[in-house]
Amino acid sequence: MGSALGVALERAGHVVFGVAAISDASVHRARTRLPDSQILPVEQIAQRSELLLLAVPDAELAGLVRGLAAAKVVRPGTIVAHTAGAHGVGVLAPLTEQGALGLALHPAMTFTGHDEDIDRLANACFGVTAADEVGYAIGQALVIEMGGEPVRVSEEQRTLYHAALAHGANHLVTVIVDAVAALRSALDGPGLLGQPLIDEQPNGLPERLLAPLVSAALDNALRRGGAALTGPVARGDVDAVAAHLSALESVDERLAAAYRAMSLRTAELAKTNPALLELLAEKGH
Question: pTM here?
Fold first, then answer.
């Protein structure tokens, strides 16, 4: 994420003089994406920065901030922005107490380390949290410069904001991976003339089957909300859902349990057949 944001800032006219990179992959991305920047220890970058961007995993942020504060390498007046979704500006207190201006700028986007990371920033919203209106104005300007859309998130709602994004994006991947696994089992065996073989590699026939369907379902959900629900659960079809559970249990009991849990939530949203709700609530689930 850090190198992608660095490219966006460079394109906006900022000088990205230094990057801290530890792993081989992050060093490669830094050298490829930001060839004019030096790879330096974070303390040296902090000493020279007017804008210090901390793009580290959520769990590592507090320790990094404490270390920088203990080393007293961040000058008063430096803008220190982090990209962790779960944190607001409170985690930056050791540095703001020394005169830094703290910002939380979280891009609501998934990053995989590939080239598309940079292009996706242009369509991303950023959750912006600051301590005051001056901070919000600076954060908003930085996000707009990077091509994103700033969205204000209060400090006290930061965890809920992050939980919502994780639920929508991370669990979507789990659902798709499970659906692909079930399809691989369903399609195993002789196919039609010219039909690709079913194997364990991604981007195969199961994914091809799912892609138009799930893309349309996602688009409908974002456009129409709960009215986009279709299928046997939304219709309250007890027999069809019971047959699904039986078929999935023959493949993977954990997959069937996930289907049951998601179906129960879907049935609650759809306010569907009480008999279906009873079926889905069975077996202690």
Answer: 0.91
DSSP H or E segment with residue 53:
strand 51-54
Exposure string over 33-60, b if 16+ CB within 10 A, otherwise e: bbeebeebebeebbbebebbbbbbeeee
E strand or H helix that includes residue 103: strand 101-107
Burial of 219 (0-12, 13-18, 19+ CB in 10 A): exposed
- The ranges assigned to domains in the chain are 1-153, 161-281
Percent of all residues in the chain with a pLDDT value above 90, rounded to a whole number: 90
User: Tens digit of pLDDT for each residue in 45-58?
Assistant: 999 999 999 999 99
Structure tokens at 236: 């309250």
Residues of the chain where predicted confidence (pLDDT) is lower than 50: 284-285
What is the C-alpha to C-alpha distance for residues 83 and 137, in angstroms, rounded to an integer? Answer: 17
Do the Cβ atoms of 30 and 20 come closer than 8 Å?
Answer: no
Tokens representing residue 6 in the block: 């660095």
Which of 6, 2, 11 has its CA nearest to residue 37? 6
User: 1-153, which class in CATH?
Assistant: alpha beta
pLDDT attached to residue 114: 82
